[in-house]
UniProtKB/TrEMBL annotation, chains A, B:
NCBIfam families: asp_kinases, PRK09034.1. Keywords: Amino-acid biosynthesis, ATP-binding, Diaminopimelate biosynthesis, Kinase, Nucleotide-binding, Transferase. Substrate binds at residues 49, 120. It is an enzyme of class 2 (transferase). InterPro entries: AceGlu_kinase-like_sf, ACT-like_dom_sf, ACT_Aspartokinase, AKIII_YclM_N, Asp/Glu/Uridylate_kinase, Asp_kin_monofn, Asp_kinase, Aspartate_kinase_CS. This is Aspartokinase.
Length: 451, 451
């Protein structure tokens, strides 16, 4: 049995929907379908999720949001019309949209989460309508009926363990496809809470684990996961097979094809993931598998990273005489709920590397002030133009010379590498470089290992 | 004005003492002398400090220690005799030794500290006696008279800031050398507390700063600080000039010529340090200077490290989603007062590197148990055969290709480098390797940069 998740661009309009429908039709093993919200149909288009955010904000501002409802409904209606579905058969979608503001929400955040979730929720309903219209028996299963229970923040929820007990009770029948909305679950109190953005991937993985799928097919708009960003490297090699932990490292470091947190249920259930292109379902795509029994065929699997980082450098003489020095720094970061990426530490020096997205408002100044007051470093410097380059590969583990080859390739191009972090994970090396060198660095490392 | 500190081997017997005396005599600028305790005269000999520890243990065990006193006194007496000092003129040394057990000590640790400190204290007295006997006007100045105030542990004290106010009141006269004992100070309550082992270097640096010396001459038993350990690399290059922070990095990583903590007062007072050989005072030795205005003439200054490390590896999926994950690990380490050397961290992985000397008793098991209980990692592994290689040089900063050159040299010898830590300090790179590769690694990096 296969769980198939379709991304937003794969369900953006009737034509794309048709690809998805054909994919579902073509394999009777594809019995569990997970929908995203309709994405952009063309450059400059608005995703349905963003329309729903507008709708929520209108309601929160005391407006009626009628025109936005019309705009949202038109998106679903157009897809239905593409398949010849009668307007009366999709009318319920409009009614649900109009009823949304009338429900009770414990807070504005929960209202926002519920509105956003309807991009997926209504698309799953529509998919069931379309499939049944085309003679393919299908049933919409809401996240509540499925028993997807979540806890945590309304916009960054975590799946609760009981979800898997609930999913175990779902009966699959050979003659019926089940259509689940991605992206959200219900709190124990019955409120909708969403996963992080891109969270339909997470729902798919949860279902794949909970329903014991043989494979989790993740249909998106690229032929495969590539060894490097195609915006930087021309025609990069597709990755045929990679391990869960390679995917995890790469997706943390900027590979956005698969939602980062979607891997955990797949790992726990040991369900392999097949990333495929909705437009070219005949291509093999990328298979993500367990590292147990995996034999790497190349040294490097992928090159990730990004130019959006910053570093805080701190020097204090005899810092390492105090056991609690780094601890005090971490406590300051925790007080500000500030997540960091890496923290290379030396005898008297610490560098803390942040994703710039984490550095909102004047948090850098605040943290610097507190470090100054509590730790009194001899030097405290902030670097705003940091890029991180992460090179990942199961083939690196225990193999001498890989770091040397990467650094030599960069040195040949005169790229200075102020930071190297290797050793936590055996299958990756993380380099800090100047933002201006980032694209060149990705290119030369790619050239070195893939040409 | 120069502050001259003589190490234990430089004052081990009459012949070595004579070198020191000649050094003092030959330069009228050498007006402040700091003594260590007499060291080993030959392989298999016992240092006076170790005899004093034996003496203290005998007293603590309720014995009288008379034979050990005779043995200790014989060492000082023999040096006096070498210069023709009459026995009655050194008799006070024996009296002081015999009086030691009769004093009050707040604890066994303070008794031990006071006994140990007398290796230096009596040697400073003897030096004053010898110099005066030879017609060189000299005066013994006890740490109490000098006002060296310390706080902290009795065997690992820290100098108090008021010391520098006290030292500022000392008047130096052109016609008189002042002889200070190294290694210890007095607590505010009047008890002797020592610095860490090798702490005479610290006293010398404190005096050099407090008395505004032009240079702090540190006389020891090597011609210079070498770019690599002579026990591993044959005839390594002497380092002519290096910066304080290079010395700090190298001494933290195993260069034992200069006591690690001795650098701080020198840096604070901006007093350059000249490490010289008592046996060859004509050689220039190694000059350690401020990094301000320093222009490196080579890429690498020194290669340090050692084979005595261990690593704890921890993997927990989605570890980085929690801000406080590393914090919890550090709290566990702090609870056990366990100092670590480095902690490379990745997305879901942390490696913590310890000096094995820190891992006493069953502390590793205890820490692992607590990490298991509090953090529940997916993997927790301990590696006992870790070596650290540290390559240091002001010439590395901002220079592309240095890491590449180091790693390529190692790769050529098929040495696998599981850990690389670069970026906290700009002037060093730290590599983790297998213990078995350590000597070879030092040799090939040395060959690469110094041949």
């Amino acid at each position: 049995m296969k769980v198939c998740k379709f991304g937003g661009s794969s369900l953006a309009d009737g034509k794309n929907y048709e690809h998805a429908v054909n994919i579902i039709k073509s394999d009777p093993e594809r019995r569990v379908i997970v929908t995203s919200a309709p994405g952009k149909r063309h450059n400059g288009d608005i995703k349905v999720t963003d329309l729903l955010i507008k709708y929520a904000n209108a309601i929160l501002a005391g407006q009626d949001g009628q025109t936005i409802v019309d705009e949202i409904f038109a998106r679903y209606q157009a897809i239905g019309a593409y398949f010849g579905v009668l307007e009366k058969d999709v009318e319920e979608i409009k009614e649900i949209l109009l009823a949304l503001p009338k429900k009770d929400y414990p807070s504005a955040d929960y209202l926002m989460a519920a509105f956003k979730a309807h991009g997926e929720r209504l698309n799953a309903r529509l998919m069931a309508i379309v499939l049944n219209h085309l003679g393919i028996k299908a049933r919409f299963v809401d996240a509540k009926e499925a028993g997807i229970v979540v806890t945590g923040r309304p916009d960054d929820a975590t799946v609760a363990a009981e979800t898997y007990d609930n999913l175990a009770r779902i009966k699959l029948r050979d003659d019926e496809r089940l259509i689940f909305p991605g992206f959200f679950g219900y709190t124990p109190a019955g409120n909708i809470a969403t996963f992080a953005r891109g969270g339909s991937d997470i729902t798919g993985a949860i279902l794949a684990r909970g329903l014991h799928a043989d494979v989790y097919e993740n249909f998106t708009d690229v032929d495969a996961i590539f060894a490097a960003n195609p915006a930087i490297v021309k025609d990069p090699a597709p990755i045929k097979t990679m391990t869960f932990r390679e995917m995890r490292e790469l997706s943390s470091a900027g590979f956005s094809v698969l939602q980062n947190e979607a891997l955990l249920p797949a790992i726990q259930g040991n369900v392999k993931i097949n990333v495929k292109n909705t437009a070219h379902p005949d291509l093999p795509g990328t298979m993500v598998v367990s590292e147990n029994g995996f034999h790497p065929t190349s040294t490097i699997t992928g090159i990730a990273g990004g130019p959006n980082f910053a570093a805080l450098y701190l020097h204090k003489y005899l810092q390492n005489k105090e056991v609690g020095s780094t601890l005090r720094i971490l406590n300051i970061l925790k007080r500000h709920n500030l997540r960091y990426e890496h923290m290379p530490s030396g005898i008297d020096d610490v560098t803390i590397i942040f994703n710039k997205d984490e550095l909102q408002g004047d948090v850098v100044d605040q943290v610097c002030n507190e470090i100054q007051a509590e730790i009194q470093p001899d030097r405290l410097e902030f670097y705003g133009n940091y890029a991180l380059l992460e090179v990942v590969g199961e083939g690196m583990a225990e193999k001498p010379g890989v770091s040397a080859a990467i650094l030599s390739a960069l040195a040949k191009e005169n790229i200075y590498v102020p930071m190297i972090n290797k050793g936590a994970s055996k299958i990756s090396i993380m380099l800090g470089i100047n933002k201006k060198d980032f694209n060149k660095a990705v290119q030369v490392v790619y050239q070195r290992f893939f040409k």
